[in-house]
Amino acid sequence: MLSPDATNTHFVKEDAAMKPKFEKYIPFQPQPIRGRTWPDQVITKAPVWCSVDLRDGNQALVDPMNLAEKLEYFHTLVDIGVKEIEIGFPSASETEYEICRELIEGGHIPDDVTIQVLVQAREHLIKKTFEAIEGAKNVILHFYNSTSTLQRKVVFHMDCDGITKIATDAADLIYEMSQPMIESGMNLRFEYSPESFMGTEMDYAVEICQAVLDHLHATPDNKVILNLPTTVENCMPNQFADMLEYFCRKIPGRDSAIISLHPHNDRGTGVATTEMGLLAGADRVEATLFGNGERTGNVDMVTLAMNMYTQGVDPELDFSNINKIKEMFERCTKMPVGDRQPYVGKLVFTAFSGSHQDAINKGVQYMKSSGTEYWEIPYLPIDPADVGREYEPIIRINSQSGKGGAAYIMEHNFGFDLPKSMHPEFGHIVQVETDKVGKEISPERISELFHQEYIDVKEPYQLLRHAFRETVDGEGHSHVAFQGTLRHTDTVFEVSGEGNGPIDAFFNALHDLPEGHIEGYQFVDYKEHAISSGSDTQAVCYIHLKDPRGKDVFGVGKSHNINRASLRAILCAINRSLA
Ligand code: KIV
Ligand code: ZN
What is the secondary structure of 5-48 as a DSSP string? Predict the structure, then answer.
């Protein structure tokens, strides 16, 4: 804003103060590419997985793991099926060095697992790293230096030639030091990371990576891993895929390289970046369990693998007991796994919405009745059992749940198969309670409400004694006579009636009651089933009546005797309507 008496300087200051804060950020410059092919690809096989939990993940912990924790973590990764595991930065500290030695000397590394060790492209650190890996069977020596425009400008004050020389000098030393080890039988391979690849000019990234391939004498039979890290995620996943496709097209030694991804998750799109990077030609992925790692973490190996799994692709990793892995992870890293973390979070197999609950219910029934060989349940992208989780906690009840949710709990947790017509009534009873308490209620509380509302209703009418006598005529028609004693508060009545079945006979017997007692009820429907808990089996009966004003009313009775269960259900419905 201009003020009449302001000086020029004042104008500038005011303008600067008004500049929106977001304008201080430099937008990402996409890599121009013609005829990109990656959008037409699909992921059809698992990449080579490399875990960087024990290095990138560990260095980002408030309390880095101790030896025992790292060993336990390492064994879990082996059990999951990870074949390449970056175990640390052995030249960085004595502790890291000791852990590397213990893994090798303690015989912890299976023959089909390769350990990977990270080192900066610096002579003394490389020498120390070679000492650390002595005696191991399979090793990837992973060295790196920063190549991005920003790092060259603000950290290294070096031009591209200087940065390339750091990488090629390191490659020469590594190649030379590795020869005796390879000759003595070690399966030693190399990995180079142009750190901050995502902020490097692509033509320069190609140039430095090709120089490293040359200095390491890479061939198609002796491939070198080129790990292209998204050290800090700075662009959209499609823009990263364009860079990667461009890089893979341009690098002359593509056949002598394994292209590896190492995405971080600063924009929250690490998984998408990795998936699109695989479409664009990557062969290998460095990731961590549940996405632990610097800042917002490394990309999550579990999500990546299970995303493939749910597309019918074998991820070649075993997450069939995900709770056990989560428990180990939380204990060793002291980092919590979020309740909504894909595939593992506490709430990811829970439906709060009533319409979701109904659809899940229908999906379960459809799968049973159709015998389909596919997973076809709405709102559940994966069978919880495939990651060792259960159907039971799928439905939880809060004030957002629909009428079917409470009935679902009664059926799946307690064996009461309520007739469909009764769902709205019981759903409403549960909803009143959830509104009252203002939070989710447990299946036990739902069962308690059901018992209070139906099973435990004994007033004002109660059946004290009764007997049935059944006769069947020559044509097989049954005729039932009922006789019983009913109590209404302090008064006792003897009643009797006849009908074509026990319910009919009892209903007719109620006409014996003096005027003013139980009049005008109509029978609508009836359902019964057995319910067992342990060795005890009982009958449950649901009765639907219309009360004298024509209002629907339901009753439930439970007994070891099926007839008694239905009489209790009738009286329950009547007692409830009077209450
Ligand atoms: O994120 C990164 O760039 C790294 C490198 C050391 C590979 O962790
Ligand atoms: Zn990293």
Answer: T--HHHHHHHHHHHS-GGGGSPPP-PPP-SS--GGG----S--E
pLDDT tens track, the chain, 579 positions: 344 444 444 444 445 567 899 999 999 999 999 999 999 999 999 999 999 999 999 999 999 999 999 999 999 999 999 999 999 999 999 999 999 999 999 999 999 999 999 999 999 999 999 999 999 999 999 999 999 999 999 999 999 999 999 999 999 999 999 999 999 999 999 999 999 999 999 999 999 999 999 999 999 999 999 999 999 999 999 999 999 999 999 999 999 999 999 999 999 999 999 999 999 999 999 999 999 999 999 999 999 999 999 999 999 999 999 999 999 999 999 999 999 999 999 999 988 777 888 888 899 999 999 999 999 999 999 999 999 997 554 556 766 666 778 898 899 889 999 999 999 999 999 989 988 998 888 889 999 999 999 999 998 999 999 999 999 988 888 899 999 999 998 899 999 999 999 999 998 998 888 888 888 899 999 999 999 877 789 999 999 999 999 999 999 999 999 999 999 999 999 999 998
Q: What is the DSSP string of 256-322?
A: GEEEEEEEB-TTS-HHHHHHHHHHTT--EEEEBGGG-SSTT-BPBHHHHHHHHHTTT---S---TTH
CA of 59 to the centre of ligand 2 (A): 10
Q: Identify the H or E element spanning 496.
A: strand 491-499
Phi and psi for 220 in degrees, rounded to 5?
-60, -25
Ligand 1 atom, smallest distance to 52 CA = 8
Beta bridge partners of 288: 300
Please choose from 193, 196, 295 the residue to mutate so as to test ligand 1's pocket, defined by most ligand atoms within 8 A of CB.
193
Query: Which residues are placed with Cβ below 5 angstroms of ligand 2, an ion?
Result: 56
Q: Which of 129, 147, 195 to mutate to test ligand 1, by most ligand atoms within 8 A of the CB atom?
A: 195
State the distance from the centre of ligand 2 to the C-alpha of 225, rounded, in angstroms: 15
Contacts from 31-39 at CB under 8 Å and sequence distance 24+? 31/202, 31/239, 31/242, 31/243, 31/246, 33/242, 33/245, 33/246, 36/241, 36/242, 36/245, 37/245, 38/241, 38/242, 38/244, 38/245, 38/276, 38/279, 38/280, 38/281, 39/238, 39/241, 39/279
CA separation for the pair 197, 205 (Å, rounded)? 7
Distance CA 441, CA 396 (A): 8
Substitution site in 50, 264, 285 for ligand 1 pocket (most atoms within 8 Å of beta carbon) = 264
Closest by CA position to 573, among listed 397, 402, 419: 419
CA distance 565 to 256: 78
Distance 56 CA to ligand 2 centre (A): 6
SS3 515: coil
